[in-house]
Specification:
The protein is an alpha/beta fold. The chain has ten helices and 14 strands. The chain is elongated, with a radius of gyration of 25 Å.
Length: about 325
């Protein structure tokens, strides 16, 4: 008997967004987010990341399509959906005369949650904000304001948390605090969807990766599978003597010679049983091409991202 597939916590079904000027920001997006995962949505500026997040959160209306969040239609059951979603937007709101404590207390009440000072204190302490609780938000630094946005998003104990470019313009200390907190929330069962320009963070944090480009979702895959499928390995040979060009006898291997003729790079598919390295080294020996150093490296997620977004769209 086949086990039932777990119900996704978010289902995006055929979502399109066309603005009044005719610009199509999203093109038939279909996406399922698994309960309790960290899902990273990557894409260049203007790709549609924020538009998609804002539609799921009910801030922007889709032109067509349906979104179900934890069993609720995001349009019909808007209030219920907003109560289970926390959103940390890109924009910093800098004009608040309220104190940090008053702001997050108000945010919690806004979603009908009973007061819980102990929980709010924990959120502020986790974000190193407790000593700033009585300060007006407008007096805080940009990094501290970003922390307040995260605290506001967590104030009503959401089961789904959206982080839209949370690391943009923040210091390294906050970034580390934030990712520690994200891991802790995920361990407690919160589903986290993030967009980020820091691809190494997605590589470090995410369970699955979605890449969006020009309004189209071009790939959704487990991070490890994506890196295995699309990752390339490279063998870099530092030669003892410079070569003018690659001998014709080596044309069977995809080799690239550096401009100074001292470095030879061979790219191969990490998934194939035969890498071709042994045969290549043997052939180099036959032609008296000596090397003084060799090393192998693998594609990073950033390499894969760049190659995908620069592929011509079908």
């Amino acid at each position: 008997m086949i086990a039932d597939k777990p119900t996704p916590i978010i289902s995006v079904l055929g979502v399109n967004k066309i603005y009044a000027d005719g610009f199509q920001a999203l093109k038939k997006i279909n996406l399922e987010i698994k309960r309790g995962e960290i899902f990273a949505l990557l894409g260049p500026n203007g790709a549609g990341k924020t538009t998609l997040i804002n539609i799921i959160c009910g801030i922007v209306k889709a032109t067509s399509g349906t979104i179900i969040a934890d069993g609720h239609d995001t349009v019909r059951d808007y209030r219920t959906v907003r109560a289970i979603i926390g959103l940390v937007p890109q924009e910093l709101h800098t004009d608040s005369f309220e104190s940090v404590w008053a702001t997050i207390k108000f945010s919690r009440g806004l979603f009908g949650k009973a007061p819980n000072s102990a929980y709010l204190e924990k959120v502020l302490r986790d974000l190193s904000l407790w000593d700033k609780r009585d300060q007006k938000i407008m007096t805080l630094s940009g990094g501290m304001k970003r922390r307040v946005l995260i605290a506001k998003a967590l104030a009503h104990e959401p089961t789904i948390l959206f982080l839209d470019e949370p690391s943009a313009g923040v210091d390294v200390e906050l970034r580390h605090d934030m990712w520690r907190m994200v891991r802790k929330l995920r361990a407690q069962g919160t589903t986290i969807i993030l967009t980020t320009h820091y691809i190494e963070e997605a590589e470090d944090m995410a369970d699955r990766i979605g890449i969006i480009n020009k309004g189209e979702l071009i790939i959704v895959e487990d991070k490890e599978v994506l890196m295995q499928k699309l990752g390339k390995k490279q063998l870099t040979l530092t030669l003892r003597q410079a070569m003018m060009n690659i001998p014709a006898e080596l044309s069977a291997w995809p080799l690239v010679l550096s401009n100074d003729g001292l470095v030879l790079v061979y790219s191969f598919n990490a998934q194939e049983e035969e890498s071709g390295i042994a045969a290549l080294l043997s052939k180099l020996g036959e032609h008296d091409i000596e090397f003084k150093d060799l090393r192998t490296s693998e594609s990073s997620l950033e390499d894969i991202f760049v190659s995908l977004v620069h592929q011509p769209m079908g």
